[in-house]
Write a structure and sequence with these properties.
Blueprint lengths: L3 E2 L3 E4 L6 H8 L5 H4 L7 H14 L2 E6 L4 E9 L9 E8 L8 H15 L5 E6 L4 H9 L3 E11 L5 E10 H5 L6
Parallel strand pairs: 5-6
Antiparallel strand pairs: 1-2, 2-3, 3-4, 4-5, 6-8, 7-8
């Protein structure tokens, strides 16, 4: 994946040397469940997931330039709810230590730019669970349009089923400046 840069962040491919930073935030019980995955219980568990990030190359490591630490991830994935090669689903997670600093909106805006200007995607979709109000704020701040609720849209790691709150942003809207850039 191409390295992307913002004022405070570097979005780059994952490296095996990122394991400690990854495990540090992924074991936090307040982080994973917001994205639908269970907190990591061991370095070995994090290593397996990290290896899948490295192999698939669809998830960037989010590096905070101030301390060169990996503080989260952001990725573009096939959207199983929409059947088009020209549409990707955006997903992200951030270490709790960095919440409230505006870092994820900064990363999201850069991935939006990259998706439309360089990948020539037609649409980006994004979803959050009803309880994830932090993600809702990020999504709205970045100019995504609310589409509705996919009732009982996702079953997460603990077997619970939640609604998916759906948003999207179209390339035309972004190019015309109709959304926050």
């Amino acid at each position: 994946m191409k390295v992307l840069e913002t004022d405070r962040l570097l979005l780059r491919n994952w490296e095996i040397s990122d394991l400690e930073d990854f495990y540090e935030y992924a074991k936090n019980p307040n982080v994973g469940p917001m994205a639908g995955w269970k907190p990591h219980e061991s370095l070995d568990e994090s290593r397996k997931i990290l290896n899948s990030f490295i192999e698939r190359e669809e998830v960037w490591a989010v590096v905070y330039r101030v301390n060169r630490k990996v503080i989260g991830s952001i990725g573009l994935h096939n959207d199983s709810k929409r059947n088009s090669a020209n549409i990707k689903m955006l997903g992200y997670v951030l270490s709790e230590d960095y919440w409230g600093m505006g870092l994820i909106p900064e990363a999201v805006r850069e991935v939006i730019r990259y998706s439309f200007e360089e990948l020539d995607l037609a649409l980006l979709s994004i979803y959050h669970y009803p309880f994830n109000v932090q993600s809702k704020r990020v999504i709205e701040k970045c100019g995504f349009t609310y589409e509705g609720i996919l009732r009982m849209g996702s079953q997460i790691y603990n077997g619970k089923v939640y609604d998916d709150i759906c948003y999207s942003i179209k390339k035309e809207e972004w190019l015309l400046g109709l959304v926050t850039q």
